[in-house]
Amino acid sequence: MDQFLAFTVVGLSTAAIYAVIGSGLVLTHTTAGVFNFAHGAAGMLAAFSYWQLAVGWGWPVPLALATVLLVLAPAFGLFVERVLMRPVQALGEAERLVMTVALLTGCIALARWVWDPNSPRPLAPFLADRPAIRLGPASVTWHQAVTMAVAVAVAAALWFLLHRTRAGTEMRASVDDRTLAGLTGADPLRAGRLAWMLGIQLAAVGGILIAPAVALDAQQLSLLIVSAYTAAVFGRLRSLPLTFLGAVVVGLLEAYLAGYLPQNDYLPGLRLAAPALLLLLALLVFPHRRLLGRDRRLVRVPLPTARGSLVFAGSVLLLALVLATVLTDEAVVSYGTVFSLGIIALSYVPLAGFTGQISLCQLSIAGIGAVVWGHLGARGELWALPVAVLVAAAVGAVVALPALRLSGVYLALGTAAFAVILDRWIFTLPAVDVFGVRIALFDQGSVPVTGPDLFGRHLTSPTQLLLLAAVFLALASLAVAALRRGRFGRRLIALRDSEAAFVTLGGRLLGAKVAVFALSAGLAGLGGALYGMQLQTVTAEQFNLVAGLPIFLIAVVGGLGAVGTGLFAGIAFVVPTQLLADLGSWAHDLTALLIALAGMGLAHSPAGVVPRMHAEWARLARDRTLFPVLLGVLALCWLLAATGAVHGGLLLVAALVAALALNARASARRATDHDVPVEWWGVRRPFGPEDGEVLSRATAAS
After folding, report:
1. Contact status, residue 45 vs residue 111, Cβ threshold 8 Å
2. pLDDT tens per residue across span 233-263
3. Separation between Cα atoms, residue 451 and residue 221, nearest integer Å
4. Using H for helix, E for strand and C for coil, what is the string for 261-322?
């Protein structure tokens, strides 16, 4: 009994922290209409800042707390609202979600960059020198007592703010209808600022309270938010009392699992994954009218032509050939993953771009493809590669089943929970025999991965694997482009526009969602298998949730509807990392920070960079004079680099300068062409693809 009471006290103390953090999530969502994925990261930054002031610089604890909670946290909340969230307020829910994911990635990278993750930073509990409070057979430390008191005070203060003050009424009214709230005299901008400032303050309070009980690690502290996610979903993202009840359930569950879970090789990960399992269960069980909500402000999905798709696939193969002939073997190892990671990024296009289903577990599914190939293709058996793809596709089909009930931010939460379950539990399981069949994943360690046997030759060299990955990326890009042009692709886009209309017109919602989830998961599994071949050894940490967020962000920046996003994401993810690698280990965090900043710039180009680049460079590609000149310059640079006559970096700069100059010239010529009267089109200048629409409108107007 004494042990049970002790675990209960620990669970209630943890629940109080989850309640404080979860109430901040509910406050932000209820008043600003945004589910903040970076809420835990804000608390993590607050904990690091408090450590720096109180321990690193020796400030008095009250002064350090006041600085963090009353100055830094509100300032950070004001920055998030003014600089990041306000520009995307006019866009859709997906864009706001991506912005918070970018903020999460940026906060983790910033913390790891500023504070060396290899240096321990212990943080003492509050009033640690005082004896514990005895409550019968149980004892409560002063830190636990302070935590529970803070949770009660936060609950009372938030209820009073939202229901008994004009500011709280403005905050609740602004999320329902900002225009109508403004007509009644409310100020939606002021309400949004206040909501973000208070939400970040609550995250800071929770981060500081929980930091003494865990390691001061950027990733671990940021992912503790999963437990607060669960509490907030218990409250259906609007009820503070139910959020506190959910926090109690999660806190007690974690404490009892830690105390009573049997000790063996299969269950320790279950305790770590329990909040994610509970979150997934809560998403599926609790009814909520917003679960099937659909954002109406949608970005146009480009329609690739057959000719353009073939040209792009050829460009992928040509780029691979250039890299294979120009780079050294060591450089091929570093840059070769461009194409395999590109396939993983491409898996977002049919799922999120065509269908509008946001998934944050694609890299985790890629890990399944890598580990299946590693075990079944240990001797290079080629048949194991389609098996790895099919297993990954089957996992994607399983993920699709709850997708029938979830959409938008709820689906993102569900897929994030699924990724955490894989990270913390499934991937940590040892090998097990089921009906005489040995099933092994990472087997609590690393898995060696080799290349396949192809036409009687075992592909093992980095150059061979680079070319193999490039061939598969080209084929996958052609397949996705054909899907977009085909009947099924049009049905997927119709499903994205309106699920109700899709079903009304005879579409099968279950079949369509299962098919697209399986397709995207199969692509991710293929990319994961190829990625593992190039790495030669894979571990579970390489495929966790946090590792997959930068790839998702780059895919969003590139444009989730564009087929070229796969290659763009592979290049943008790998090349800056390798170029900055010589600066030191911190360069990886700098790269992640740059990716996060790019994601935060989504408001300036919601359709993505790839469609914009295509529009800007299409003039040069259609110019019959300048485009051959560009090809000649690139061929000359390639020849000089392959023979070693000139340094490759210098040639790269020269090629970029020549391409930019020729593109500028093509744009100028095109602008001059537009000055030609319509009746002289086709005589003084050639017809362009867009001229037909202009002529049709002119004819109709006359």
Report:
1. yes
2. 887 777 788 888 888 888 888 888 877 777 7
3. 37
4. CCCCCCCHHHHHHHHHHHHHHHHHHCCCHHHHCCCCCCCCCCCCCHHHHHHHHHHHHHHHHH
CA distance 56 to 571: 39
pLDDT tens figures, 154-187: 888 888 887 778 777 776 665 555 555 555 666 6
How many angstroms separate the Cα of 105 from the Cα of each of 115, 207, 551, 590, 594?
15, 17, 11, 11, 10
Alpha carbons 219 and 137: distance in angstroms, whole number:
36
| Cα–Cα dist 71/431, whole Å | 51
Instruction: Of 251, 7, 9, 2, give the one whose Cα is nearest residue 141.
Output: 9
User: Which residues partner with 434 through β-bridges?
Assistant: 437
pLDDT of residue 683: 58
Cα–Cα distance, 59 to 62 (Å, whole number):
8
Reported pTM: 0.85
Record the tokens describing residue 439, joined without a space: 């099933």
Rounded Cα distance, 34 and 94, in Å: 10
- The rounded distance, in Å, linking the Cα atoms of 294 and 316 is 36
Cβ-in-10-Å burial (0-12, 13-18, 19+) of 34 comes to buried
Give the helix/strand (H/E) hosting 369. Answer: helix 362-376
Burial of 188-211, coded b for 16+ CB within 10 Å and e otherwise, reads: beebbbbbbbbbbbbbbbbbbbbb
Q: Which of 265, 217, 230 is nearest to 25 (CA)?
A: 230
Helix 337-346 × helix 565-580 angle, to 10°: 140
Distance separating alpha carbons of residues 524 and 342, to the nearest angstrom: 10
- In the DSSP assignment, the letter for residue 131 is P
For residue 536, the SS3 value is coil
Q: Which of 300, 295, 354, 298 is nearest to 611 (CA)?
A: 300
Spatial distance between the Cα atoms of 664 and 656, rounded to a whole number of angstroms? 12
The span from the CA of 527 to the CA of 537, in Å, is: 15
Write out the two tokens for 687: 């017809």
Closest among 562, 586, 551 to 362, alpha carbons compared: 551
Please give the distance of CA 486 from its chain centroid, rounded to a whole number: 28
Q: State the Cα–Cα distance between residues 172 and 126, nearest whole angstrom.
A: 35
The token duo for 206 is 């929770």
What span, in angstroms and rounded, lies between the C-alpha atoms of 391 and 185? 57
Distances in Å between the Cα of 211 and the Cα atoms of 127, 207, 296 are 15, 6, 40
CA contacts within 13 A on the Cβ side of 314 = 6
Q: Is 94 helix (H, G, I), strand (E, B) or coil?
A: helix
> Angle of helix 545-558 relative to helix 93-114, nearest 10 degrees?
130
Instruction: Kindly indicate the confidence band of residue 85, based on its pLDDT and cuts at 50, 70 and 90.
Output: confident
- 112 with 232: CB under 8 angstroms? no
The DSSP string of 228-266 is HHHHHHHTTTT-HHHHHHHHHHHHHHHHHHHHHS--SSS
Q: Mark out the alpha helices in 33-119 (DSSP H runs).
A: 39-51, 61-67, 73-79, 93-114
Alpha-carbon distance of 547 to 623, in angstroms, equals 41
